[in-house]
Amino acid sequence: MNYIKGTEAECLTYDAEVTAGEKYTGGTIRWAEPMEIDGYHYMTVHDRYPTTLTIVTELPVIEDEII
């Protein structure tokens, strides 16, 4: 699976583009929710909506914090 890696604003702009293009209604109201990991935001890439943003094939591993 491919993911966009960018700022929150970049991911939300991509989400708005896909959501508008797919004309989601009813239960599905948006393409995806950005995930914040280590200061970057990630979002699943839609096959029909290319992007010039950085694409990664895996999400970073989240280390469990020891308290």
Provide an overview of this structure.
The structure is a single chain. With 67 residues, this protein is α+β, with helices and mostly antiparallel strands. The protein has one domain. The protein is built from one helix and four strands; from the N terminus they run βαβββ. The protein has a four-stranded antiparallel β-sheet with strand order 2-3-1-4, covered by helices on one side. A hairpin with a 2-residue loop joins β2 and β3. The longest helix has 15 residues.
End-to-end separation in angstroms reads: 33 Å
Largest sheet: 4 strands, antiparallel
Number of helices: 1
What is the SS-derived class?
alpha+beta
Oligomer: single chain
Shape: globular
Spatial extent as radius of gyration:
13 Å
Total discrete domains: 1
Side by side, the strands of the main sheet go 2-3-1-4
Uncertain ranges: none
Q: H/E element string?
A: EHEEE
β-strand number: 4
Proportion of strand residues: 15-25%
Determine the fraction of residues in helical runs and give it as a percent range.
Answer: 10-25%
Give the integer mean of the pLDDT values: 90
